[in-house]
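Throughout our pipeline, every protein is held as a single compact record rather than as scattered files. The remainder of this section carries one protein's record, kept here as part of the documentation.

===
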Amino acid sequence: MRSGRLSVAGALVLAVVLGFAGSAHACSCAPMAPGKALRESDAAVVGRLVEVVPRGQLQADYRYEVQRVYRGAKAIEPGGMLAVRSARSGAACGLPQRADRRYGLFLTRLDGRWRSGLCSVVTPRRLWLAARGRPLAARPACDGGGASR
């Protein structure tokens, strides 16, 4: 009788785990060359992440100290603070959340807000090279890369 309960309990745990694993989603990025991303974005900056402010269950405002503006200089000033709306979770392609790290960000303007996601993050050096017209191979940013100190 006891082994029967353990088998049923084990099967139930396995079913629950497999059920959640089947419904889990992860961020998936299509690789884009930084030069192309720079041309297609509304703005491109290098910023140091200061804080992440949750905005409900699914979104957050990521606040950056802007260090360099490569595109969108009329709307964004170096040295100023920039709020970027994104998903809260990396699994939902939200921005990296490591404070005091520098990120290269490609931004879009939507409904009066700057928006971005994990697929639009590059290292500051790759953004610098793209701004100088250097041809760079496309690499997905989904590994949370793009940060530097």
About this structure: The chain has three helices and seven strands. Residues 2-23 have pLDDT under 50 and may be disordered. The chain has one domain: 34-148. Residues 34-148 form a domain with the OB fold (Dihydrolipoamide Acetyltransferase, E2P) fold (CATH 2.40.50.120).
